[in-house]
Amino acid sequence: MGRVGLYTLAILAALASAGPFLWSSITATKLNADLYNPQNNPFAYNQPATFDHVRFLFTETTFPTFAWNTLWVGLLVVLITLALGVPAAYSLTRLDLRGSGTLGIAIFFVYLIPPSLLFLSLTRMVVWLGLQDSTWSLVLIYPTITLPVSIWLLIGFLKALPKDVEEQAMIDGYSRGGAFLRVVVPLLFPGIVAVVVFAFTLTASEFIYALAFISPTSEKVVSTGIPTELVRGDVFHWQSLQASNIVIAVPIALIFNLFLARFIAGFTMGAVKG
């Protein structure tokens, strides 16, 4: 009975988590007459489904441009976050630097500063570099959001890794850099995946900086482009809005589940192959 209760709770939790996605999927393929009739069941098809609103999203709006801008900005921000965050976290955790604990806490406190307090000063820097109304401004600014919490997250993972494996690699002839690349990085793989997912989803959902720094439609990302393109005055293209949610969410979910299978392997791969 205990196991039955546990599985029942797990199923209910899964349904609650998947509920918004399922509702968006149904709404995105509903007819207008079906969606706006208050007597119809909002969680089922009362009339035949249609993909007209999905086609409208890709053919009658600039959503593909928004999605492409979001993709390449997100990938660059992830690469910058990893290139700076992993060495920074390693230095603060392993090199016994004076004041490293205080510095780690200070880095995390930077993340707690509301973006609404920073975008005015960051605007001056963007204008000085000539990146206003350019998507490259987001590549410059977003790491200021992703780096602090990513470093803090990686510090937690590194503290959980024993130093013995790394020291043994250096005894076997590796330099500190070699031990870091061949032993620490594979063991740190779960934390790296967490940082990748966090940085990309934060980049795709950030709104204030994208709204403040970019005006041209061709340079917008999904967080600002979709509201301006699919909400026109008092007309809401509701089904297309829900379709855009699905198109953005599905790739992120697939990528995360693709890496999920390597979580366990990441804990031991460095120890046996380092």
In brief:
The chain has 274 residues and is mainly alpha-helical.
Distinctive features:
274 residues; mainly alpha; MetI-like fold; 2 domains; two-stranded antiparallel ribbon; 15 helices; disordered C terminus; transmembrane helix; cell membrane; BP-dep_ABC_trans_perm; transport
* Cross-sheet strand order for the largest sheet: 1-2
Work out the helicity level: over 70%
Helix-strand topology string: HHHHHHHHHHHHHEEHH
- What percentage of the residues does DSSP assign to strands (E)? under 5%
Radius of gyration: 23 Å
- What is the subunit arrangement here? single chain
Structural class: mainly alpha
The largest sheet, given as strand count, sense and whether it forms a barrel, is:
2 strands, antiparallel
What is the second-level CATH architecture of the largest domain? Orthogonal Bundle
By CATH, the superfamily of the largest domain comes out as MetI-like
GO cellular component, one term: plasma membrane
Membrane topology: Multi-pass membrane protein
InterPro entries: BP-dep_ABC_trans_perm, MetI-like, MetI-like_sf
Keywords: Cell membrane, Membrane, Transmembrane, Transmembrane helix, Transport
